[in-house]
Design brief:
It comes from Tritrichomonas foetus. Belongs to the VPS29 family. It holds the Pfam family Metallophos_2. InterPro entries: Calcineurin-like_PHP_lpxH, Metallo-depent_PP-like, Phosphodiesterase_MJ0936/Vps29. This is Vacuolar protein sorting-associated protein 29. With about 130 residues, the chain is mostly beta strands. The chain has a single domain, classed as 4-Layer Sandwich (Purple Acid Phosphatase, chain A, domain 2), CATH 3.60.21. It contains one helix and eight strands; from the N terminus they run ββαββββββ. It has one helix at about 40-50, and strands at about 15-20, 25-30, 55, 65-70, 70-75, 95-100, 105-110, 115-125. Strands 1-2-3-5-4 form a five-stranded mixed β-sheet, with helices on one face. A hairpin with a 2-residue loop joins β6 and β7 (about 105-110). The protein is globular, with a radius of gyration of 15 Å.
């Protein structure tokens, strides 16, 4: 678990954490450890610093999933649709990642304004080490 921007210090002190799932190294990073937050160049730098295949990060309260430089970047958004001063249009969202061998399937769930659940699916395959 990593500390969120508004979490108490005694809850968790980690700004980053690396976990292994199958053949993937997954980095978890607090939003305040990536400045400016959601900046693709800074996110790529953080992924290289942590030497991870997948970087999960927060900030912005909006779900984002994209690939760059052979890495996957995932912001699950806000499960509660919590307020953010950045925008008034925040939809509750979360992400599930299913890992099988060298493939990760990413399912993004977003509650739409009409109360329906929108589900987006993306596939990410880890590049082999020999390439």
């Amino acid at each position: 678990m990593v500390r969120g921007e508004f979490d108490d210090d005694d809850l968790c002190e980690n700004e980053t954490l690396i976990v292994n799932a199958g053949c993937f190294k997954i980095g978890l990073a607090s939003s305040y450890s990536i400045i400016p937050s959601n900046d693709k160049d800074r996110l790529a730098t953080k992924a290289r610093e942590l030497d991870v295949d997948i970087l999960c990060f927060g900030g912005g309260h909006r779900s984002v999933v994209f690939e760059a430089d052979g890495k996957l970047f995932v912001n699950p958004g806000s499960a509660t649709g919590a307020f953010t001063p950045a925008t008034t249009e925040v939809s509750p969202s979360f992400v599930l990642i299913n890992i099988q061998a060298s493939t990760a399937q990413i399912f993004t769930y977003v509650l739409t304004e009409d109360g329906n659940m929108q589900i987006d699916k993306k596939k990410f395959t880890k590049e082999s080490e020999e390439e």
